[in-house]
Design a protein that fits this description.
Elements lengths: L2 H9 L2 H32 L10 E7 L6 H13 L4 E6 L11 E5 L7 E10 L3 H5 L3 E4 L8 E2 L7 E7 H7 L9 E4 L2 E9 L18 E7 L7 E6 L4 H15 L4 E2 L7 H8 L1 H35 L1 H9 L4 H38 L8 H25 L5 H4 L2
Parallel strand pairs: 4-10, 6-10, 7-9
Antiparallel strand pairs: 1-11, 1-12, 2-11, 3-4, 5-9, 7-10, 8-9
Membrane topology: Multi-pass membrane protein
Family: Belongs to the ABC-4 integral membrane protein family.
Pfam families: FtsX
């Protein structure tokens, strides 16, 4: 197949060629970024929380005074713990995929010169670590005397466990046990390493930071009350949650039950990612609609060109061109147009990604999405042009003589 005649023909139809190439470029830019966003959302929705979600629920109370906190903790722990099916009750501040609490920046030195990042602090009273079902892969659990009272939002000198992801970020390639970090004047010492523990809002600061989490051993008290972790058999958990929400009115009539936050962790996951599912579905619709419009544009243009070139095609058939030659001509022509659009579309894809990074704090578009998008558009172009090209190949040689 000679490429030069194809370029000559395209130069005679500059405007139509340019419009189709621009449509392909726009499709390439949107396709790459939309697929990246969809994959990012799907990965986030299936993230491993690190806790035994099927067995856990949270009861959250508000509207009480700090002076009531100790008595409230005692009443709620005893009342909920006596309910049928409840295996344990622990005081916590929040759970993965729940309401975001205890988010703060940390540093690797007391002066705050070496910033370590923004992490989520999960405060747990005695029994909370075991109730969560966290897997400690190195080090040890906090000792009973290491559950210290809270001075601000955490104990002033805390024994903590960190996730493997956070440890690798703070001390790459180094054993994190015994390491220290600070949050303003608050001091933390690492005694254990957790395999997985995601933040309350794992997508809030990007997928790379989803497991930047710290478990702090804390003693329930005036500044640590109101949120309770219930553990039960997965088959019994829905009933336990319903009974607990009803029983709170009698156990703690002086507190207000936060309805949205008092649910099973599985329900919290569903609620947390509801918007992500909607966004992924919407983006799938946008991608399909854009590909359909692009395909229709290619079909329309190719059909118009076939109609215009019927006599030319007939002459080529009359002088020896085969149906395969005609088919190859239109497919090659389409491939060149789509390739030009893809080249421009890759630049637009990067520009669109930079804008999303700036205004929506999204991660950088991986390079491998570009060849994937190119392959999809090349395949789409060849499929779209196939019908008109087959009609062109079916033009008989006699067409060349009908208008002579």
């Amino acid at each position: 197949m000679q490429i030069k005649p194809i370029f000559s023909a395209l130069r005679r139809h500059r405007l139509a060629t340019l419009l189709i190439a621009l449509e392909i470029a726009l499709a390439c830019a949107v396709l790459c970024n939309a697929c990246f966003l969809i994959a990012n959302r799907l990965q986030l929705m299936h993230i491993q929380s690190g806790v035994d979600e099927a067995s856990l629920a949270v009861i959250s109370l508000t509207g009480f005074e700090d002076a009531q906190a100790v008595d409230l903790n005692a009443r709620v722990s005893a009342g909920l713990g006596a309910m049928p099916g409840v295996q344990s009750v622990s005081v916590i501040n929040t759970v993965p995929l729940g309401r975001r609490k205890g988010t703060a920046g940390i540093s690797l030195d007391p002066a705050g010169q070496h910033f370590g990042g923004v992490v989520d602090f999960f405060l747990g009273g005695p029994g909370a670590l075991d109730a969560l079902g966290l897997r400690v892969v190195a080090g040890r659990h906090p000792l009973p005397d290491e559950y210290a009272p809270i001075t601000s939002f955490v104990p002033s000198n805390s024994t903590v466990l960190v996730t493997r992801a956070l440890a690798e970020h703070l001390w790459p390639g180094v054993d994190p046990l015994g390491k220290e970090f600070w949050c303003d004047k608050l001091h933390f010492r690492v005694v254990g390493l957790i395999e997985h523990l995601v933040r309350a809002d794992p997508g809030g600061r990007g997928a790379d930071t989803a497991e930047w989490a710290v478990f702090v051993a804390a003693q329930p008290g005036p500044k640590f009350a109101g949120t309770y972790l219930l553990r039960a058999d997965p088959a019994e958990l829905p009933r336990v949650v319903r009974d607990a929400r009803t029983a709170i009115a009698k156990i703690a009539p002086d507190a207000v039950l936060e309805q949205e936050d008092s649910r099973s962790v599985s329900d919290l996951r569903e609620s947390r990612f509801r918007q992500d599912r909607a966004m992924a579905g919407m983006l799938v619709g946008v991608v399909l609609a854009l590909l359909l419009v692009t395909a229709l544009g290619i079909v329309g243009l190719a059909s118009f060109w076939v109609q215009q070139r019927r006599k030319q095609i007939g002459i080529r058939r009359a002088i020896g061109a085969t149906r395969r030659d005609i088919l190859s001509y239109f497919q090659t022509e389409n491939f060149l147009i789509v390739s030009g659009g893809i080249g421009l579309g890759m630049l637009l894809a990067f520009a669109l990604n930079l804008m999303l990074m700036k205004f929506y704090e999204l991660p950088r578009l991986p390079l491998y999405y570009l060849p994937i998008g190119a392959l999809v558009l090349w395949a789409l172009g060849q499929l779209a042009v196939l019908g008109p090209a087959l009609r062109a190949a079916a033009v008989p040689p006699v067409v060349a003589t009908r208008s002579v």
